[in-house]
Amino acid sequence: MRKDYVTEPVSTIYFGGGTPSILPSSEIDAVLSQLSKTFTIEPGAEITLEANPDDITPEKLQEWKQIGINRLSIGIQSFFEEDLAWMNRAHNAEQAQNCIHLAQDAGFFNLTIDLIYGTPTLSDEHWKKNVDTAIALQIPHLSCYALTVEPATALDKLIRQKKLADIDTEKQARHFEQLMEWMKASGYDHYEISNFAKPGFKSKHNSSYWQAKQYIGLGPSAHSFNGRSRQWNIANNALYIQSLAQGTIPAEEEVLSSEQQLNEYIMTSLRTMEGISLNKLLADFGKDKYDTVLKTAHSHLTSQHLALENNFLKTTASGKLLADGIAADLFIL
């Protein structure tokens, strides 16, 4: 591991990117113990574990709490049977609600759940019930995503064979607009395009990505970032383990140019409620790039997809539907 990734105290730890809830708690504890020996872990660090509803039991919850897990991210996706079946999820609608009650009974109140919208089986009425259920269950943080179909996946094949209905992009846009309205009315901050939180419950870990802070990724496919370069480990599990046994980290690295750093800042900050700081843009990237971004932003300000507030460029409600395209338009090529 490069030394420039080990210079700051660790404020967040995140077990995810897979299904860590299937691991024995003793193995998660072993990882946490090794991290404590290798890094300085801040007191009260946010330690999140991703969990599937069907993996959550009272016994596991107590074990997770004892080893230091203080935040759970649960892949609910939907509270309706037909949606879960369409998405080929292992859990059912009853488990979707029951696992939340179990977590809260065990003392886990810093919870986040994932919900998927825009699927062919999800009606507007059921989408509202999904969101209402999460609010009624007092979930303080929601991550909500439009379903995407990746090429060469089983889902992609079934849709192309007309065995499953294709994605309706108009429905997805409508569900997103409804979501923004409902969450605002319920007192949640829409602090990132896909993320909503009650005050005090924003994800500290994910916020660090959007703020371009340094982070270390451990394990196959994991990414690291030190502010100037990006490093990613190989995805092949067997080769990863073999390389570690030989004393090498199987990773590639990319040093980011000034333009790439600027584009990443535009892409990540435009997804947040704060937006692009024009002061930071000028100070970190110079007047030429500052002027170029402002010139390109003019048309989006005119169309009211962007707004300029307190020297920050941020997306409006309608602009959030177009955030990726607006960011790409602002990129310096």
Could you walk me through the main structural features you see in this protein, from its secondary elements to its overall organization?
This protein has 333 residues and is α/β, with parallel strands linked by helices. The chain folds into three domains: 207 residues, Aldolase class I (TIM Barrel, Alpha-Beta Barrel); 39 residues, no CATH class; 73 residues, Orthogonal Bundle (Arc Repressor Mutant, subunit A). 43% of the residues lie in helices and 20% in strands. The chain contains 14 helices and 13 strands.
Sketch the major β-sheet.
7 strands, mixed
Strand fraction: 15-25%
Structural class: alpha/beta
Morphology call: globular
The CATH topology of the largest domain corresponds to TIM Barrel
* CATH second-level architecture of the largest domain: Alpha-Beta Barrel
Biggest sheet, spatial arrangement of strands = 1-2-3-4-5-7-6
Q: What gap, in angstroms, lies between the N and C termini? A: 32 Å
Number of domains: 3
Average pLDDT confidence is 94
- Note the total helix count: 14
Helix content: 40-55%
SS elements, strand count: 13
Reading the helices and strands in chain order gives: EHEHEHHEHEHHEEHEEHEHEHHEEHH
The whole-angstrom Rg is 21 Å
Q: What low-confidence regions span 5 or more consecutive residues with pLDDT below 50?
A: none
The first-level CATH class of the largest domain is given as Alpha Beta
CATH superfamily of the largest domain: Aldolase class I
What multimeric state do the chains show? Answer: single chain
